[in-house]
Design brief:
By secondary structure, the protein is an alpha+beta fold. 29% of the residues lie in helices and 24% in strands. The protein contains six helices and 15 strands. It has helices at residues 4-17, 48-61, 78-97, 114-124, 166-174, 182-191; strands at residues 25-27, 44-46, 73-75, 101-105, 108-110, 131-133, 137-138, 144-147, 150-152, 156-157, 161-164, 197-200, 205-207, 239-249, 255-265. Strands 1-15-14-4-11-6-12-9-8 form a nine-stranded mixed beta sheet, with helices on both faces. Helix 3 packs across helix 5 (166-174).
Length: 266
């Protein structure tokens, strides 16, 4: 509704990159106006665990900014809480459906080899896998290589594109509340070996633009560091629409999609 340009661009790229996907929209969570129980998504979070993996990534890449990743106590933005609750709803849908689903955010851009790589990857997914990231930002080294297209993740960021199995969805629901941005929280579930998360390599979904560029979600840890212990939500935040796709996944990667939208604060 509020970002028809993004939905149009998303639909075009989805059709061009993986024509088997057929999106259908329905409304999800408004981070500003909808009731989001704190028993499911908290209102503040501590950055300490995420900062550990930010430093690991920086060291792995040879960056010189290790001292910039600090522990802080922050308030989650309305957008972060709306996004988290929208993913919770997607997981509940997966459990109700009883089969894996593909979840895509509306800035997802498939690569040209999306379909053949996904099909090979799905054939190699081991029994007991909970989640398969199709797009991600890698923090730590891979735990293991399962096949040429699959690696086991320790800690990765973003929720731009992933396949989740009912057992994984049920596991995440059993671990609520989400106590930090949802991608960090899911990464912690993987790092602690509660969630068996794999990644397709190379990634076959990329975000339309660089991280945090033209995003509809205000990231609480991207506010300027003023030395304050906490950040507060800004009442002048603009609200935008973010869409997710929830899509049933078959073993042949033939897919029929349902789109989920949620209003989030920039």
């Amino acid at each position: 509704k509020r970002r028809p340009d993004r939905m149009a661009d998303f639909s075009t790229k989805l059709k061009d990159g993986c024509g088997a996907l057929t999106p259908i929209r329905f409304e999800a969570t408004d981070g500003q106006t909808d009731d989001i129980p704190t028993s499911e998504v908290v209102t503040s979070w501590n950055t300490a665990r995420n900062a550990v993996y930010q430093r690991i990534r920086a060291a792995r890449k040879g960056w010189k900014d290790l001292e910039s990743y600090k522990e802080r106590q922050l308030l989650m933005s309305d957008g972060e809480r709306g996004r988290a609750f929208s993913h919770i709803r997607a997981w509940r849908h997966c459990v109700q459906l009883g089969r894996p689903i593909l979840v895509l955010e509306d800035d997802a851009t498939p690569t040209v080899d999306f379909t053949p790589i996904l099909r090979r990857a799905l054939w190699s997914v081991p029994v007991g896998t909970h989640l398969l990231y199709l797009g991600y930002s890698q923090a730590a080294d891979w735990r293991s290589e399962i096949s040429p297209e699959l690696v086991e993740a320790e800690y990765v960021w973003t929720t731009v594109a992933y396949i989740i199995w009912p057992a994984g969805a049920q596991l995440l629901l059993s671990r609520l509340p989400i106590n930090q941005p949802v991608d960090n929280w899911m990464a912690c579930m993987s790092a602690d070996r509660h969630l068996k998360a794999l990644c397709v390599r190379p990634k076959i979904i990329r975000q339309r633009e660089a991280w945090n560029v033209n995003s509809d979600i205000r990231h609480s840890d991207e506010k300027p560091d003023t030395g304050d212990v906490s950040c507060t939500n800004n009442s002048s935040d603009q609200t935008e629409m973010e869409k997710l796709l929830i899509q049933e996944v078959g073993s042949d990667a033939g897919l029929t999609a349902t789109s989920v939208g949620h209003v989030a604060s920039q």
